[in-house]
Specification:
Blueprint: H1 4-11, H2 13-20, H3 23-29, H4 35-59, H5 76-87, H6 99-114, H7 116-132, H8 134-145, H9 165-177, H10 183-210
Helix pairs in contact: 1-10, 2-10, 4-5, 4-6, 6-7, 6-10, 7-10
Protein name: Biliverdin-producing heme oxygenase
Pfam families: Heme_oxygenase
InterPro entries: Haem_Oase, Haem_Oase-like, Haem_Oase-like_multi-hlx
Length: about 220
């Protein structure tokens, strides 16, 4: 019988590829967009992770979501350091969430409040995605705009408290396999993973409209 972690990865693979192939991300990774586009994307992440991590405080003792609340993953403080570097000390007065970002953050908050297993789906798609593929974005940003290696501007992508990402991910798969629930509940979680990828892709589409290809 297929493990739950394998089921999630298999079921969400197509959506993950769509995100990797989005116009905005392709242009960003292809050195075709300016640093302002990267900063705007970082703003959107701040709103998304704000929803994830305020929900984490509420769920730390929950039997389903609690085991996934790992402070070494938290990204909000790093995002705020990056935004101060990218936007200046008054960055809070200038950031704004795209409508797609607001919808995404709202869904995360709703799951945190009413459905802990759904929160796990969003936790998985965000943190493991940024722990893995996010490193490509960090490397591109450092080379394209001359950011200090693993420093200001890209601190979000540096998981200093996770010295062995491969081992961490193995532990994470085990946590997913141990999530309680019957087959119907697990299918609901898989569906929520797909929804999370779709909402993330909607943010990329909105960013692509805001930053059409520049020379």
């Amino acid at each position: 019988m297929e493990s739950f972690s394998t089921l999630i990865r298999t079921a969400s693979r197509e959506q993950h590829e769509e995100i990797r192939g989005s116009t905005f991300m392709s242009d960003l990774l292809g050195h075709k967009l300016g640093v302002d586009a990267f900063a705007r994307y970082t703003e959107q992440l701040w709103f998304v992770y704000g929803a994830l991590e305020s929900g984490a405080e509420r769920l730390a003792g929950d039997p389903v979501a609690g085991p996934f609340v790992r402070p070494e993953l938290f990204r909000t403080a790093s995002l705020e350091q990056d935004l101060e570097y990218l936007r200046g000390p008054g960055w809070r007065s200038g950031v704004s969430a795209l409508p797609a970002t607001l919808e995404y953050a709202r869904r995360i908050s709703d799951c945190a409040r009413t459905w802990p297993a759904g929160y796990v789906a969003h936790h998985y798609t965000r943190y493991l995605g940024d722990l893995s593929g996010g490193q490509i974005i960090r490397d591109t940003a450092e080379r394209t705009w001359g950011f200090p290696k693993k420093g200001d501007g890209v601190r979000f992508y540096v998981f200093e408290e996770i010295p062995n990402p491969a081992a961490f991910k193995r532990d994470y798969w085990e946590l997913l396999d141990a999530v309680p629930g019957d087959e119907l509940e697990r299918q609901r979680i898989v569906s929520e993973c797909k929804r999370a990828y779709a909402m993330n892709n909607a943010v990329f589409q909105a960013l692509g409209e805001e930053f059409p290809l520049s020379a």
